[in-house]
Amino acid sequence: MKKNITLFSAIFFLSASCGIFGNSGILGTMKSTDGGSSWQQSNATDKSAVNISGLLVAEMGFEPGNHEVIYLASVNSGLWKSSDSAGKWKQILSKITAYDYFVDPSNTQIIFVTGIYGDHGRIIRSRDGGVTWEEVYSEASVSNSVNTITANPTNSREIFAALNSGVLIKSIDGGDSWLVVNDFNNQILKVRYINKTIYVLTRSKGLYKSLDNGAKWTSITDSLTGSGGISSYVSRIVEQFYKISIDDQTTGVIYLTTNSGLYKTTDDGKNWQLQKLPVESGAPRAIASTRGGMLAYTSIGNTIFKTLDGGKSWQTQSLATTNVINKIIIDPLLPQVTYAGFIEP
Fold it and tell me: C or N terminus of the chain, fewer CB within 10 Å?
């Protein structure tokens, strides 16, 4: 499955990433340095004539150990990187429809990107910080993207990735070869390896976890989907799951956005609580949390909601765009600094 080639190494700007939009059409990213009270565009690039106000943001996150370095996976313009807290962005991988990425914490020169290119799901790897790239996985089936990727925090050569079809694959040699771990028979949205646990979020079946490196899986959202009986705190059955935020400091704290609202667990899925937002119309989408889930942001459309008390109360802030907030990240060292990424409605 590996192709030893240099792939997509040249900068290639798609037309969507070059456009300059008015406020109503802002995509790309915004940044807040005051805890979400005010937001500014953060769409400048290393090319003075180009900005990223047309980027559709699928995923964003910080480089392990460096909160000033941010990566952005875009569905219409590959992978981007900022080394100055979103002051300027640089495209380091073009052409591929990028859904997720992983940076090796033991060697940040090693980067993986997942998505689809030429109607086939792909995993692309760089060993030199994004200067050159090689394809390490190409899915045989057509229109079956590789949606997400993660790795064992204590052994980054053990990598897990997931296909849109619901198949979870694994590499134990740093991406050189892959094998099938499980088929969830449902679209996999996200896979994350945190606190010695692998989590897999599916579109309609909900959240699964494995405590033994993927050998056995347990569904922990049956009470939300109705599979295990409907709990009294569930206003209606969850039919669609969207995003997940897992606290990497406090074990067991997870937020989920769904078509029936925002849910939180503090005991790793044994019990879920519906979080009451100030606005009841619309489904929450983006979610980010830290400090044991006490500080959290979520979104509905172009509106951000923030809690400082674990969901008991929420502050509201609408952003100057008609587009949808798809991703929120919180600076791990400066929690008053927050970033938002956008997609079209």
Answer: C
Residues 78-104: tens digit of each pLDDT: 999 999 999 999 999 999 999 999 999
- Pairwise CA distance, residues 19 & 4, whole Å: 34
pTM of the entire predicted model? 0.92
CA separation for the pair 215, 90 (Å, rounded): 39
45: phi then psi, degrees, rounded to nearest 5: -130, 180
Q: Residue written as tokens 């979020």?
A: 201
- Edge to edge, the sheet with strand 241-246 lists 241-246, 254-258, 261-265, 273-275
CA–CA dist 290, 194 (Å, integer):
14
Q: Can you read off the two tokens belonging to residue 185?
A: 């028979």
CA 328 to chain CA centroid, Å, is 9
The tens digit of pLDDT for each residue in 238-266 reads 999 999 999 988 999 999 999 999 999 99
Instruction: Report how far residue 333's alpha carbon sits from residue 76's, in angstroms, rounded to the nearest whole number.
Output: 30
Instruction: Return the bridge partners of 273, or none.
Output: 264
Q: Where are the alpha helices (DSSP H) in the chain?
A: 222-225
Which residues neighbour 88 within 8 Å (Cβ) at sequence distance 6 or greater?
44, 45, 46, 82
Residue ranges, the chain, pLDDT below 70: 1-24, 228-235
CA atoms of 287 and 298, how far apart (whole Å): 4
For residue 331, report the phi and psi dihedrals to the nearest 5 degrees. -60, 125
Q: Residue holding tokens 């956005």?
A: 257
From the list 96, 145, 154, 153, the residue with the least C-alpha distance to 125 is 96
